[in-house]
Design a protein that fits this description.
Blueprint (H helix, E strand, L loop, with lengths): L1 E3 L4 E2 H12 L9 H7 L10 H18 L4 H16 L2 H29 L5
Antiparallel strand pairs: 1-2
The structure holds FE2/S2 (inorganic) cluster.
């Protein structure tokens, strides 16, 4: 999935960057700026910032679950990112909207799967 249309950064790119960033001793806080810089890219319009933050959140959790990154480094990074977003009301509001939309889409997909598994009624 494309996260940033200006730089063509995908969620897979972000995941790969996070593995490398979180594996560093004294890993920096993986903000979108740090992640994009790691990918040798730079935000242009910044329209993707809320989606980039959400993707970073999700990928950090996923990496910890899969055991691909230290769970303590992941928990620390996630906590520090949440704290920085809480202090920015605009970014916090955008994040809430993106999370809500993702929840609606996921709910719709689950319903479609359930309907596909349901035997045909005659
Ligand atoms: S969409 Fe990412 S910088 Fe424009």
């Amino acid at each position: 999935m494309i996260v940033c249309s200006c730089t063509q950064i995908t969620d897979a790119d972000i995941e790969k960057a996070l593995v490398e960033i979180l594996s560093q001793p004294n890993a920096p806080l993986p903000t979108p700026g740090i992640v994009y810089r790691h990918l040798q890219a730079r935000m242009e319009c910044c329209g993707c910032a809320p989606l980039a933050v959400t993707t970073i959140y999700e990928k950090i959790d996923e990496l910890a679950r899969k055991g691909l990154a230290c769970p303590y480094a992941c928990a620390s990074a996630r906590g520090r990112i949440e704290k920085s977003v809480e202090n920015n009301p605009v970014q916090s509001q955008r994040l809430a909207v993106i999370r809500k939309l993702r929840g609606i889409v996921q709910g719709h997909l689950v319903m479609q799967e359930a309907m596909a598994l349901e035997p045909e009624r005659k």
